[in-house]
Amino acid sequence: MTGHGFVFNEKPIRIERGSGPYLYDDEGTEYLDFGASYAVTPTGHCHPEVVGAIQRQTERLLYVQGSFPLDVRDDLHDALAASAPGDLTNVWLCNSGTEANEAAIKFARSATGRSKIVATKRGFHGRTLGALAATWKQKYKEPFEPLASGFEFVPYGDTEALDAAVDEETAAVLLEPIQGEGGINPSPEGYLEAARETTADNGAALVLDEIQTGLGRTGTMWATERADVVPDILTTAKGLASGLPIGATLCREWIADGAGDHGSTFSGGPVVCAGATATLDVIEDEQLADRAADVGGYLTEELRAAVGEDVRSIRGRGLMIGIEVKRGANRLLPTLALEHGVLALPAGRSVLRLLPPLIVDHDHADRVVNALEEVL
Asked: How many CB atoms lie within 10 A of CB 349?
């Protein structure tokens, strides 16, 4: 394989800078970023508090390995534990969402002494070999098989199928509270509660993948809060450091006590920790979860009024919205970007995905609605 872009299909826009909810290309054209590079910039592009924290840390220390105690890492541990639901007070830091899910799978197997992992159809958990084995869509997996064994899939939202699959050999159930890559599919009422009950009854761990749903995106800090469910393990990444590479696996005590040996060279690097702590501070100080609930609710209502009859479905929560179109979603994205200056994402072939920075307002929502109305 040669060339610098073999992993990604490059878009015909060369981005040079970003500010708030906007990106700018090399010709100075402004784009309203309603994809946030897959939810990676919840505080907007280059938020001054996040940038300032990163700059100050780069002047003190770029890196030292994780066995040395660091105040900046301790601050992030404390901030994550304080933000987490229930008693998820043990924090493992890594470099990405797929690494966070790899750790979750390893921790659950080690703590339970079991190997079976129950995941869901249409679920997506990452591209490394363990997380990929827990991912449903075959197109992601075929070129890399054989993958890790011991994974069983059940239909998402089907409590009876889940209950039947979880047994005395199950180490964990791995779920997204809202499926992202699978098409923006919110969990049905009572589903997370049922997952919590059946895992507890069988001595298995409940792992909630909040890599895309967390950090205020769905209108609460964590999507699981809506169901008042505390998992045994919660994973987060994407927007945790406003664009710097980081992931985290949050665990209950019984998981942490039996987690076994796991490590990572760059786990909890000081610069990334500084950016992540500042990001959490901004999300709290600017009440971005509440803003996501408000603007997301407004945007969903306006979309339904403007284009509801032209699409199959509009679904999601907060500022995690999927629009299932009647023709291929990928065909709409270039027109949205090049003719209307709005960036969005696909979620499969038929769903247009909106994951904007949580700082957007009603005027930004109106612009997106108007653009989609014209394009559709």
From this structure: 12
Spatial contact of 166 and 119, defined as CB atoms under 8 Å apart: no
- Give the SS3 label for residue 135: coil
- Per-residue pLDDT tens listing for the chain (376 residues): 344 454 556 678 999 999 999 999 999 999 999 999 999 999 999 999 999 999 999 999 999 988 899 999 999 999 999 999 999 999 999 999 999 999 999 999 999 999 999 999 999 999 999 999 999 999 999 999 999 999 999 999 999 999 999 999 999 999 999 999 999 999 999 999 999 999 999 999 999 999 999 999 999 999 999 999 999 999 999 999 999 999 999 999 999 999 988 989 999 999 999 999 999 999 999 999 999 999 999 999 999 999 999 999 999 999 999 999 987 888 999 999 999 999 999 998 899 999 999 999 999 999 999 999 999 8
Place of tokens 């066995």: 67
Give the other-Cβ count within 10 Å of 27's Cβ: 8
Per DSSP, 376 falls in state -
User: Which amino acid, 46?
Assistant: C
Amino acid at 116: K
Cβ–Cβ under 8 Å, residues 215 and 42 = yes
How far, in whole angstroms, is CA 166 from its chain's centroid? 25
The pTM score is: 0.95
CA distance 115 to 63: 35
Domains and CATH numbers, the chain: 15-47+287-375 (3.90.1150.10), 48-285 (3.40.640.10)
